[in-house]
Amino acid sequence: MRRLSKRKTLSLVKELDAFPKVPESYVQTSASGGTVSLLAFSAMAILAVLEFFVYRDTWMKYEYEVDKDYSSKMRINIDITVAMKCQHVGADILDLAETMITSDGLLYEPVIFELSPQQRLWHKTLQVIQNSLGDQHSLQDVLYKTVLKGVPMALPPRVHGHVYVNKVAGNFHITVGKPIHHPRGHAHIVSFISYETYNFSHRIDLLSFGEEVPGVIHPLDGTQKTTKNNNQLFQYFITVVPTKLHTYKVSADTHQFSVTERERVIDHAAGSHGVAGIFVKYDSSSLMVTVREQHMPFWKFLVRLCGIVGGVFSTTGMLHGFVGFCFDVICCRFSLGVNKPRELAQESEQNDDHVVPLLAVEEEAVASG
């Protein structure tokens, strides 16, 4: 009984086979078929390898929403080099919401404005990256994923540190004299500083908002401004966008920003008023961006791989059949064109041989009659 049931099962499975089978006697091997098979398998192997690299690659997805977190503090990371002595400059931040003055967390390091050859190489590399980012924004996605930073060649800190401010518009500035705090405003002590020592040529090694993420290049990193005028004003107008970054290597709450630059000479006689120095005016956007690194699902990779195998098989089969058909047509016409005159000539000769005797017979019959 068991054997009978097994036989019935096997026969049922054979009957359910929907794929047509070609008898072996109908299959004919050829050099062209073997060549096409080798090309097909090679194409499938190459495309499968390329598809595997696509599967391993990732991309960044951007999502936008309204930023509802107004109570938290925003961190500002600063590393700026000024071509003046540390005791002659002062940096602070004025928060427009609460008229708050703060300079806690900022340190002053006495350094030389000129760079060493290694530092100059790093600074030039940073400027090249900035130019590339301006031309092709997708390069930022690569920096997000790699999480690399050239720390060995990074510049030593000057006026550097970080401060926490409210997420509202504010003004960070570096000008002559140390800041002093009083209830009615803020001021800088400039009485004992000579006007000839003013020089606000500067280099921004780092200016960012939020948590510092390795690998992220900010718009003002590597910016260098030089001037020979003692009374020069440099202004940077910044719009900050809160950003949540989630990659396979790091997750952080950082900020992106766009910047507009302006500089002018302070000349009260000509109507150009103001204070010489470096002023960074920032404002926070109401939108928040979430950046996520995504990966192709494994099932999608399998579907694409099956599509490659089936597509190559079908395409090469159709091409091989079409080329064979064209080859057969051309060969048949060529053979007909070569053989047809000979056959016609032979037929005409045979007809001539038959006609001549008939005419001769007719002539003999007339003569005898």
From TrEMBL:
<comment type="function">
    <text>Plays a role in transport between endoplasmic reticulum and Golgi.</text>
</comment>
<keyword id="KW-0931">ER-Golgi transport</keyword>
<comment type="similarity">
    <text>Belongs to the ERGIC family.</text>
</comment>
<dbReference type="InterPro" id="IPR045888">
    <property type="entry name" value="Erv"/>
</dbReference>
<keyword id="KW-0472">Membrane</keyword>
<keyword id="KW-0812">Transmembrane</keyword>
<feature type="transmembrane region" description="Helical">
    <location>
        <begin position="301"/>
        <end position="323"/>
    </location>
</feature>
<dbReference type="Pfam" id="PF13850">
    <property type="entry name" value="ERGIC_N"/>
</dbReference>
<dbReference type="GO" id="GO:0006890">
    <property type="term" value="P:retrograde vesicle-mediated transport, Golgi to endoplasmic reticulum"/>
</dbReference>
<keyword id="KW-0813">Transport</keyword>
<dbReference type="GO" id="GO:0000139">
    <property type="term" value="C:Golgi membrane"/>
</dbReference>
<dbReference type="GO" id="GO:0006888">
    <property type="term" value="P:endoplasmic reticulum to Golgi vesicle-mediated transport"/>
</dbReference>
<keyword id="KW-0256">Endoplasmic reticulum</keyword>
<dbReference type="Pfam" id="PF07970">
    <property type="entry name" value="COPIIcoated_ERV"/>
</dbReference>
<keyword id="KW-1133">Transmembrane helix</keyword>
<dbReference type="InterPro" id="IPR012936">
    <property type="entry name" value="Erv_C"/>
</dbReference>
<feature type="domain" description="Endoplasmic reticulum vesicle transporter N-terminal">
    <location>
        <begin position="13"/>
        <end position="99"/>
    </location>
</feature>
<feature type="transmembrane region" description="Helical">
    <location>
        <begin position="36"/>
        <end position="55"/>
    </location>
</feature>
<dbReference type="InterPro" id="IPR039542">
    <property type="entry name" value="Erv_N"/>
</dbReference>
<dbReference type="GO" id="GO:0030134">
    <property type="term" value="C:COPII-coated ER to Golgi transport vesicle"/>
</dbReference>
<feature type="domain" description="Endoplasmic reticulum vesicle transporter C-terminal">
    <location>
        <begin position="158"/>
        <end position="318"/>
    </location>
</feature>
<protein>
    <recommendedName>
        <fullName>Endoplasmic reticulum-Golgi intermediate compartment protein</fullName>
    </recommendedName>
</protein>
<keyword id="KW-0333">Golgi apparatus</keyword>
<dbReference type="GO" id="GO:0005789">
    <property type="term" value="C:endoplasmic reticulum membrane"/>
</dbReference>
<dbReference type="GO" id="GO:0033116">
    <property type="term" value="C:endoplasmic reticulum-Golgi intermediate compartment membrane"/>
</dbReference>
